[in-house]
# Entry
Amino acid sequence: MLRSCICESDMSWYKDPLFGVILLFIIIAIIGAIDFIRNRLRERRRTHSLENLKKSYEFLGIKDGVEEFLKLNQNAIPTLEFIAQAYIQSGNIQEAIKIYTSILNSTAATQGKERILYALGVAHFQAGFLQRAKNTFLEIIKNSPRDSESLLYLLRTYEKLSEYQNAIDVIDCLQEIYEQSGNIDDTKYLESLEQNRAYLRAMHLFGDDDISFEDKIAELESLRARFPRLEKSILVYYKQYNLALFWQKAQESRNIENLLDVFWRTPDTQVPIEILTNPKIIEVYRARGLIKSQVTSDIAKSSESKQSLDSINKSAVCAKFELEAVRTLRIYTRFMADLHFEYRCSECKGIFPLESHRCPTCNALLSFEVLCSVREHKDEVHYSLL
# Structure
């Protein structure tokens, strides 16, 4: 009897409320310790990852005096960043990269390193070191997944590397961040994301050999209907792989002016004169002399009255001034005239000698308008090497 009472008293200690409170504090302490250790390990992995990325830049060397300046002045980083930006503005991006690398080597705080890494990634992107830029922005996003600016540069980097599916994934991330921000009234931003997604999808289709040409046409036509700015890129693709389809779709275009350079540079053997029905396209090849107007044959008739000749000339006039100038010079003079093309961004109004999908100045997508002027035709094939 006594033994059973002693056993019951020994086993009832866990029912004491004080024991419950102690146990609760022990559990909280264990959870806090585990969370502390996990955060320390995560921070160590992050620091180790940043150190590995930093070591990959060491072969570039350190600019003379930068390391010593960092040791002597505790607040030297803003000054060095200003100097690096000055180097970038002057086009000496390599020196800017060296300065950013020096700052990266001396910065202890992870947040500070991410800011310098962003500037370093932008410098690599501007210098054309796309793989290094990609690695840099991926490192930043691994530690700060909601960094929209780094995501935008990563998008441009993937695009230049022709990794279009990865770029589409970045668009999805940007859209998710935008929707979670609760600022859903900016329709222009959403339209820009959709246009970028459509453009990247079209570029992906152009280079994907696993999709049949018929399936590509169906999806490309859908994209062209929803995003008219993609028309030129899609028609140029048709021209490379299916000339008949190109001429069929080109004559349905509502923006012939923006395709003028494509039509003008098409070789004579690829122009099906007999099936052309669009008046604006016909004018292009009338100016080039492929479509003979009545003017050429009637000029030779000396008995033709001036009034009749004028009416014939008027009926064959090209509506676009530059085309009419080339046509007139070809008929009435020996001056070898040609069209010279330039491209103007509709956003920043910058003018460039070559066309690209993105404006080099403002990064606007598919914003180029075709400008043409009359120049003397120079047959460089017959130029003497001496």
Notes: The two ends are 125 Å apart (CA to CA). The first helix runs from residue 2 to 11.
